[in-house]
Amino acid sequence: MGTAFFYRRLASPLHATRASVGAVWALSLTASALILYQPLALLALLAAVLGAGWGAGVGRRLVRSLRTALIVAVPIVLVNLLVSRDGLTVFARLGVLGPFGQGDLTLEALAYGGVIALKVALLILVTTLAGLAVDPDDLLRMFRRLSFRSALTATLATRMVPLLAADSQRLAEAQRTRPGGAPGGARGRVALLGAVVAGSLDRAMDVAATLEVRGFAAHRRGRRAGGRGAGAGGRAPFSRHDLAFAASAAAVLALSFDGRLAGSAAFSAYPRIEMPLGAGTFALCAALLAAVLLPFCDRRGIEP
Amino acid sequence: MSSALLSFERVSYSYPGTEQPALSDVSLELHPGEFCLLAGLSGSGKSSLLRAASGLVPHSHGGRFAGRVSVAGLDTREHGPARIGAFAGALFQDPETQLVTSSVRAELALALETRGHAATAVARGVEEVALALGIDALLDRSTHELSGGEKQRVALGAALAGRPRAVLLDEPTSQLDPVAGDELIGLLRRLNQEWETTIVLAEHRLERCLAAADRVIALELGRVAFDGAPHDFVRWAGERSPALQTPGAKLFALSGLHPAPVGVRQARAALRARGLLPEQQESAAAPALGEHTAVGPDAAAAVEPDLGRAPSRRRRRRGAPQPALELRGVWHELRDGPAILRGATLTLMPGEAVALMGRNGAGKSTLLRHAAGLLQPTRGRVLGAGRVALLLQNPGDYFIHERVDEETSARALLDVGLSGLAARHPRDLSGGERQRLALAIVTDGERPAVLALDEPTRGMDRSAKAELAAQLRARAGEGQAVIVATHDPEFAAACAVRAVLLADGRVIADGTTAELLAGGWYFATETARILGGAGGALLPEQGAELLRRESPIEAVPA
């Protein structure tokens, strides 16, 4: 359905967290995915993000997103395997590959491609998780003090996407009920595309009219309108979940930097794979899992 | 009389690229605290008048504008919709496009934030409007997951959040079930009485809100054809514009009774005063299904128009004809979601016309999609004797070409009476014509065994509905099974012989329209409500026949 990949307020600690903290937490996971190269640490982070998805009640949708991530990841591995010339451990020789030269496939290129693919998959998953569990309206309201109209336009876009998805689904359904199905061929497809565009424009006109009568053009700066607290007449106090996720974000960042700098998350693919696998690495993986997942254990006060 | 809140002075307006004026020399004044109903056929100018009052005409639409509209002393030529909106909130037909943000709280806050209210004022305004409209439980819900009725209430809340002095509403109940529609009208009446909010409401189903109004303005071809009190309007409509006559007024006119009533209560009082309705019937409870058999079957058979009757189950079992469509224990269960259909079972015989009714979200549209094969049941079976042609809710979704005759065959256009409009652009057709074109598209080619229609009368005026009902009866007469999902009891009574009530994905009642629509509070026609369900009379013609024959009419057993 059209709304399967959009924010819905659910009973979860992450949904109960204010959007600003939720966004910072997601950014910390993103940063961690970018900082770390150690495959075990990245796998631990992947497990943590999937676990967080289950804790937030969006696990199935995250798994669907993981399938998409795999579709992106496989070509990354293959391309790196074919074009990288820096590894020393050759496991297959393909001969001369035209402009690419000698086609030697190395274990190092395979490993490095896998690490990059894992990072990309993590970025996709964290973005999906944030999209599903962080309230975009609440988030964008923070930016209204800087530029009200830009923030409202962005809010509108988040609302219009599922609306237009539902519209196009309805249109496709209507075409399926035609005797003989939807018109085929290039002309039919162009006509269908024209109808979708015309429908979107009609929608946009209607929404624009609604915005007009709600005073969009007459915007005057309010004395203060911030965060979730805007609806409560002032800055709302930090909840237990706000504090927990803020602490989690700080811990994830600290662990990632520490792992990188202290060497427990060191990884080098070329010319030969160097990857220390000591107690420090396993401790880092366990700490990452705990830092990401612990905030989900407290389920008090999470009802919408 | 207090000074006018809203005034039109010789206003004429044409949309860009059209010669025909949408408003023509309109002059009127509305005062604080008035509840004004705008009546008129499709294209009469109701929406244009509301858009002119909200400043959208001419600011957003362009076009040629003459005259002067002022709202709370502000001239709409000088002040745009944003400024006007502080004094006159607006609510349009489609709840989907009325919601701008993703959560209910943000939606209610938006109108206040855009006008620069302080955070405390925003918070207080949101709480108050949510409490006033009974939507406080929805505040933290996402706007995606609200029902149609909830969306319309939230949109009304957003329009009211800034405490405007007037609310302009363009057919706000057209997509709502009878219960949600009545709730919305009741809410408007309360706002009007308690806050003295001026209400300007454009509606096609006048019987739903005429009794709540203080004043009616009827438009014809962009001109004010009538402006007066509701009781004068019903008399005027009877004489000058029968298409605007309410079923109650028509019942009285056909029975030779005067004056025409404004609502059910007044009609019943008038009938009682004439001895046509027994005193005790006032307290008669709604009859249960099948209760009409005590007083009804003969009377109903005598007064029912020539629609045929729903075949009995026994006749079906013995019977020769194969069902045109059969749903056997159909379930539709969403992954990670609720069950939309829960073992729905329904059989349609050839030539049978069935109205499918129920609240928003009861599963009507899903059931029709299963019938047409657009969805596959998660459990249960759907069996058919042939093709099921399904007409979905928005006829515009079918139009993908530039000309009417490119959309379907000439024969199909002839069948629905649109041959004369072959060269027109489909989107330039009127509401009724668009519906007929969509019908031509889905019924083209191999003759369907079943014709299924999902809410086909949204936004249609009474004459277009009557035309469609006649078409459906004709198709049923030719042996096609017809099933119509509708919220409109008057339309259901006009086009079907059998009614099925769906609730929570289950068929909870299945009987003749007389059985189902005669005794209810919500799922009942105005004639049935006036006559208390007597004789199973649903339409004014049937009621008038009953009143002529029986005096007083026999009470329905309590």
The domain tally of chain B reads: 2
Rounded Rg of chain A: 24 Å
CATH topology of the largest domain in chain B: Rossmann fold
Topology, number of strands of chain A: 2
Most extensive interface, residues per chain?
A-B, 67 and 76 residues
How does the overall form of chain B come out from the CA principal axes? Answer: globular
- The fraction of residues assigned to DSSP E strands of chain A is under 5%
Main β sheet profile of chain A: 2 strands, antiparallel
Given as residue ranges, the uncertain stretches of chain B (5+ residues, pLDDT < 50) are: 281-315
The CATH homologous superfamily of the largest domain in chain B is named: P-loop containing nucleotide triphosphate hydrolases
**Which class of secondary structure composition applies to the elements of chain B?**
alpha/beta
Helix percent of chain A reads 55-70%
Assembly annotation: heterodimer
Briefly note the structural class of the backbone of chain A.
mainly alpha
Number of domains of chain A: 2
Strand order of the largest sheet of chain B: 6-7-8-3-9-10
What does this structure look like?
The complex is a heterodimer of chains A (about 300) and B (about 550). By secondary structure, chain A is mostly helical. Chain A has 2 domains: about 20-140 and about 240-295, no CATH class; about 150-215, no CATH class. Chain A contains 9 helices and 2 strands, in the order H-H-H-E-E-H-H-H-H-H-H. A two-stranded antiparallel ribbon of chain A has the order 1-2. Chain A is flat, with a radius of gyration of 24 Å. The two termini of chain A are about 25 Å apart. Chain B has 21 helices and 19 strands. Chain B has a 6-stranded mixed β-sheet, sandwiched between helices. A 6-stranded mixed β-sheet of chain B has the order 15-16-17-13-18-19, sandwiched between helices. In chain B, strand 7, helix 7 (about 180-195) and strand 8 form a beta-alpha-beta unit. The interface between A and B is large, with 67 and 76 residues.
